[in-house]
Structure formats: structure tokens, C-alpha cells
Amino acid sequence: MKKVLIISTSLRRNSNSDYIAREFERGAKDAGNEVEFISLIGKKIDFCIGCLSCQLTQECVIKDDANEIAEKVKNADVVVYATPVYYYEMSGQMKTLIDRMNCLFPSDYKFRDVYLLAASAEDEESAMDGAVKGVQGWVDCFEKATLAGVIRGTGLTETGEAKKDEEILKKAYEMGKSV
Ligand SMILES: Cc1cc2nc3c(=O)[nH]c(=O)nc-3n(C[C@H](O)[C@H](O)[C@H](O)COP(=O)(O)O)c2cc1C
User: Fold this and answer.
1) Cβ atoms within 10 Å of 62's Cβ, excluding its own
2) Which of 144, 2, 15 is nearest to 80 (CA)?
3) Which pTM value belongs to this model?
4) Sorting pLDDT into bands at 50, 70 and 90, what band is 155?
5) DSSP bridge partners of 7
6) Rounded Cα gap, residues 140 and 48, in angstroms
7) Residue to mutate, 83, 87, 161, ligand 1, most ligand atoms under 8 Å from C-beta
């Protein structure tokens, strides 16, 4: 049994990446894992100010919702990010969270497998290349971790469209089941 932490970063209700994340969650739970699902809706996460004091203290000087999320990421076996594609990249709120978790860099983090679940309006899978590159860059900074899987939920524009996309939902469920 693994500790799986899913962070859904879209701030809109009925979001496509959130639907994909919920299916991943269902698969991971069906396989007997302990799963926690966090949505960034309603969370306060300020920008990293770049002071780097966290590299000495392993704590951020800013106190908001990012501190608790960073602690959960540190102690999970599997970390899953779900994001809408914004201008060929991960969402700004996801990037802000990642920056704020810089305190994990010198820490004895437990996570090993990282997954990315992304939703884009465009049909081309390359619409997600920037988001994948960004997450891969983060993973590369944690040498005990790997980017274990990516779901490219393309062709999703309006809210709730992913709910009807059986192929993407099945992929997400199966990936969740295999963590
Ligand atoms: C600010 C912004 C930028 C976007 N940029 C892109 C983009 O570069 N490529 C793309 O395919 N879709 C883009 N989209 C569309 C979203 O990725 C798409 O609607 C997706 O389904 C949103 O996921 P969500 O429902 O999980 O929030 C953009 C949407 C917004 C609001």
C-alpha cells in the first residue's frame, strides 16, 4: 500500500483536469492505496520571494496553505499533479506551489513516483510538452524521484468535457490503479 497525494490545481469548478484526477484517485483507491486528494480551490498560496532561507531551515518564511501541502508532498510515496494547460505550460498556480515547495529540496523527502495529468483545449498532444518539461525539470531536482506517467487529456475546452471522454478517464483509472 502506498501513500498517494493528488493535487488538483485547476481553480474552476467541474474542471477537466479535476475529472481526470478523480478517476486516477478511484483507480489508486481500488488498488488498495491510501489516497489524499487536495484541490487548490480556496487555498492561499503566495509567490516564492526567493530568499532561499528554506535551504537552511527546511521551512518557508511565508505562512499560508503552501506549508501544509509541502509537508504532505514530502511524506507521500506518490505525488500526482493535475493541471490545465495555460499557454503551453502548467497552470500558474501549480508553478507557484512548486516554487513554494523549495524547502523540500534539501529535505529527506519520501516521494519516488510523480505523475502529471493535464487537460488542454487543443487536440495535439504537443500542446502539453511545456507542462511535461516543467514537471520533468522539478522531478530532476529530486534524484530519488522519477516522472512515472503522464496523461495528456487533449481536446477538452469547456468545463466537464472530460467527464464524457471515456478513453481519457479509462487511461487515468488504469494509471491510478497501477501506482
Ligand atoms: C489562461 C488560459 C490559457 C490557456 N492556454 C491554452 C493553451 O496554451 N493550449 C491549450 O490547448 N489550451 C489552453 N487553454 C484551455 C484550457 O487548457 C482548457 O480549457 C482545459 O480544459 C482547462 O482545464 P480545467 O478544466 O482542468 O481547468 C487555456 C485556458 C486558459 C484559461
Assistant:
1) 16
2) 2
3) 0.98
4) very high
5) 38, 81
6) 20
7) 87
What whole-number distance in Å separates Cα of residue 7 and Cα of residue 10? Answer: 9
Q: Are 83 and 116 in contact (CB under 8 A)?
A: yes
Question: Which residues have CB under 6 Å of ligand 1?
Answer: 10, 12, 15-18, 84-88, 119-122, 127, 156-157, 159
* Ligand 1 atom closest to the CA of 19, numbered from 1: 26
pLDDT digits (tens, 9 = 90+) for 78-94: 999 999 999 999 999 99
88: CA distance to ligand 1 center in Å?
8
Question: Which CATH number covers residue 112?
Answer: 3.40.50.360
Sequence letter at residue 44: K
Look at the chain and report how many structural domains it folds into. Answer: 1
Q: What is the pLDDT of residues 55-76, one digit of tens each?
A: 999 999 999 999 999 999 999 9
Q: 154 lies in which domain range? A: 3-177
Region label for 109, one of left (φ > 0), alpha (ψ between -120 and 50) or beta (otherwise): beta
Distance 89 CA to ligand 1 centre (A): 9
Radius of gyration of the chain (CA): 15
Distance CA 149, CA 147 (A): 6
C-alpha cell at 59: 521551512
Ranges of beta strands (E only) in the chain are: 3-8, 34-39, 78-84, 113-119, 146-153
